[in-house]
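Weekly modeling sync, notes
Attendees: S.R. (lead), two postdocs, one rotation student

Agenda item 3: backlog of single-chain predictions. S.R. asked that every request posted to the team notebook include the full sequence so nobody has to chase files. The rotation student volunteered to paste the first one in as an example of the format we agreed on. Action items at the bottom.

Example entry:
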Amino acid sequence: MHGVYLVTPMPHRLGGSYIEPNWAKYSDIVDILLSEFPEAVNVMKAIGISYGQLVKFKTHSPSSNYYEISVYRRFYSSVILFSLIQEWPISKVISIMGTGLQRGALQQLQKDAAHFCSMIVSFCEDLHWDLLAALLAPLTKRLALGVKDELVALVRVGPEIGSARARVLYDLNIRTPADIVRIGETRLAEILLDSLPFDSLDPIGGKRQTQAGSGAIYPQVAGNCGETKEGNRAASCHRLANIIFNKCSRHLQNESESFA
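Predicted structure, as returned to the notebook:
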C-alpha cells in the first residue's frame, strides 16, 4: 500500500492527475479498506492521515491548507489504485467511492500512475537506489494492467486476456504464454467455453468493455462464450482462442529471437 502511495501522482496543482475525494464518504471508504487490509493503518500513520479528521470530513468541509489537503487527496487516489491492482471489480470500486466517479477518470489515473512509477524507478536506478527500484518496478505494469503480480505475464499478451480471464487461467495452472501454447488452441477454447461468459455477442469485433472483476479500464476485446444470436457459442470461443493462441505464439517467437 505504501508503495502505491509513493507512485500516486500528486494533485493537479503539482502537475499530476487526481480524483477529488468524496469527502462525506471518505472515512467509510477507509473502513472498507482496513477491513480487508488492516495493515494499511500503518501507511496512514506514516504519511499523516488522521482517521479522526476523516470522520470530521463527513460534516465539515476540508480546510484551506493546501498541503494538508493534498495529502488526503493523494491518499484517496492511492486507495483507488490499490483497489484496482487487487483486482476489485470496477463496479465495486465505483460503488464504494460513490457517485461522480467516472471510468475515464480512473483510466487516466491508472495511466498517469504507471507513467509516474516508471519515472521514479528510472530515477532510483540512476541514483543506484537498487532496493527501492526493485520494490517499485513491478508496480509499473500492475498499475497499467490493474492486476496482481502473478497475472501480469498473461494480461500482457493483449486486451483479449483481461484480469477475469487471466485469473481463471491462472487457477488452472496456465500462467504464462508458454503454458497457453502448451495446452493448445482446442483446450483453450474449451476453457473459455466452460468458464468465461461475457456480454458481447462478437468476440472479434473489438467492442470496448471492462470485464467483470477487471482492474484494467482499457479497451477490451470482448468475447462471448454465452449464447449468441446465431447460437454459435462454441465457434465464438474457438475464434477468440485462436486470437489468443496466435498472440502467445508470436510472443514466444519474439522472445526467442531477442535472445538469439
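Discussion: group reviewed the output briefly. Confidence is low (pLDDT under 50) at residues 198-214, 216-222, 226-230.
Action items: rotation student to repeat for the remaining queue; S.R. to check formatting next week.
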